Amino acid sequence: ALRTGGNDTQALLTSALQALGNGGNSAQSPMASLQQVLGALQNAGQTLASAASRVSPQCREDLYSYQTSLQSRQLWALQMLDASGKPRAGLLKGQRTFVGDYDECMEIVGQPSPGHVVKGHYCGLAVSANFTALGLAAVGPLLSPLIVHVCVPHSCNNTDLFTVFQPVVNLTNGLGKLEVAYCTEEIDGDPTEDSAFWIAIGVMAFLALLCSTGTVYGVVHDWRTAAETQTERPMEEEKNGHVNVHVNAAFDDEGHRPNGDTPVLTKVLTSNGNTPSHDAAADTFTVVNGRPAEQRNSRKREDGVCSRLLLSFSVLKNGSKLLSCHQTQGELSCLHGIRVLSITWVVLGHAFTMQAAAGIGVLGNAGDTYKVFDRWTMGAILSGTLSVDTFFLLSGCLTAYLFLRQTKKAGGVTCFNMIMYYVHRFWRLTPLYMFAIAVYVGVTPYLGSGPFQFPIRDRSNCRHYWWQNLLYVNNVLDLENMCFGHSWYLADDMQFYFVAPLVVVPWALGHRAVGMVVSCLFVLTQLITAPVLSHIYEAHSFFINNGDYMKYVYFPPWTRAGPFAIGLMLGYALYSYNRKFRMQKMSVFLGWLLAVAVGLTCVYVNYDDIEGISKTFVPNWSIDEAAVYEGFSRPAWACAVAWVIFACCTGYGGFVNTLLSWRAWAPLSRLTYGVYLFHLVIFYVMMANLREPFYLSAWNVTEFFLALTVLSYLVSFVASLLVESPTLGVEKILLGGAGRKK
């Protein structure tokens, strides 16, 4: 077929595409036409004579052996042909990927001649067609590019593949263009030759060794402590007195502890060695048998720094803290529920939207994408980005609330406390963040093996641009080469935290008006920049965007500062009123009514933009209307959630507070940071192991979402035991109480 003239090949392709556009009413069916085109591609070895000088010698020899073995009907050659992709039903539904049999291809071991072994190599070709020139512009979004999976000899690499098939596509005289040629094994490669792999494995092995050693040491340490306690008990039982010792409030645990940190001193002692008691009239401890608490805990303080550092890696101790449902007095317990629900919303949104945009030809029904989202119930998915604004709100609230409480304890703002303000934040976020990137770059490429193991750009970018993430500037610097794409949020959050003292320090010094003015300026910045930039770059929305939306509207901190600033004001209000604020019933009712109305509007109003989009493929809102929504929806949503938090923390939350403060949320809440970091890492691994295109439907994505959520929490738990909990323990030991101040 390939030895026909260029005009004949062009006529063949034109006939096939026109048949698709006419719904199969041509004399030749679209399937038959496309099979002829594919047949031409599969027999491209016949054109090798003209391209032989540009193909590697071993590939040329193996392709020739493949062709001759196919003619002689040898089994391995037939399997190689059989494992290559063919057209399938659903082309007009967007089934543009001709998927082969990955496992059959990779299992092929042929021997065309003694000592000459040919193995299978699974590759893909992305071919774009000029549908506009054919008068079939409407078909273009569904079928461009066409993805053809081919099984070729293992000796042929990406360059060889491109060299062989490019002349075939060129025969269409400009109607087609070979965009990409890739092979799955060249994406994951050989891990033993990958320095990133060894770095990641080395770090994980070192952490596993520390945790194993710390766990064993902790068990022995506890056993020895228990044995000594048993030895001392007979002598202690000769005494029966007790005294009351006042405890300085500075040692009491305070505020909301996002990571479930335990207080330095625990208000539980025993009067007779068996039952706990606490003197409620005075903030005192009842001390057992005349022994002060410091004597009973003397062993803990006698442990050296090295001993305590090793104990901070104990899996048993850290695991019990992570899984604890205990909540302390004064804790903003409703934040646990809000945090868990928000991260679940993030994962759900990514499960839907990333499926729709994932990879080269992953979807088997790309044409149904708009149809799936063309229903009002999908408003929660399309508005899923508001969940990120909830996290900005929580971050601002805790930043102000805890900073003001700590500066009050310290007697004012000091240089040391300000230094520790930044040191703690960097230490809190960075170790697990860098660990996640190391796993993403060094390990995950080798966890996937399938026809959809395609190149992931942000993963390859990390090999050269990881330092931008370490400095938290990846949201504004060199966005085309962003590493670990969803980490833009961490950069925004760190930058907000960096400038937050412009607000909280004046508040701590008693200058309320200054802090309020700066906070309002932050909100005003978003209200101006977000819609203006949306208009300038015609960036319609997250769901329908031209690429500039993410770069100029979604990532930059100046377009996302509003919720964080509102969170700062919320934290200041909770601190100022000491979580005690009196409101009339009517005020409470109106507050809840307004919050619910604003929240539902922010979530579901954008359905008006996409209603009917499955038929028109064009959004209903103009650029200016979309810009207004972009500018005002996020601060409005933050205000609605801020009311929920304020009402719950001041006693006006009712059943909502009961739900959000459920103790079972606490362990899940401590893992949300890890879930955010790892859920897309797991997503890509799951995609890489698919054997068939993913069929986009609400039910399929729901199943995928549930699996993704469970796996994300499991991985987050393990990562927290290996990295997050130990590093926080190390910080407390090395920096003392300063490490606990936010």
UniProtKB/TrEMBL annotation:
Membrane spanning stretches: 196-220, 340-364, 376-404, 425-447, 494-510, 517-537, 557-575, 587-607, 635-659, 671-690, 702-723
Keywords: Membrane, Transmembrane, Transmembrane helix
UniProt xrefs under InterPro entries: Acyl_transf_3_dom (IPR002656), Nose-resist-to-fluoxetine_N (IPR006621), O2_lipid_transport_reg (IPR052728)
Residue ranges of every copy of the Nose resistant-to-fluoxetine protein N-terminal domain listed in the record: 56-185
Keyword Membrane tagged: yes
Protein name (database record): Nose resistant-to-fluoxetine protein N-terminal domain-containing protein
